[in-house]
Amino acid sequence: MRWLFILFFGLWGSIAAAGEPLDADAFDALTRGKTFYYGEDGQPYGAEEYLDGRRVRWSFLDGRCMEGHWYEADGMICFVYEDTPEPHCWVFEQDDGGLNARFMGQSGATELFEMQQTRQPLQCEGPEVGV
Question: Which residues of the chain have pLDDT under 70?
Answer without folding.
Answer: 1-18, 107-108, 127-131
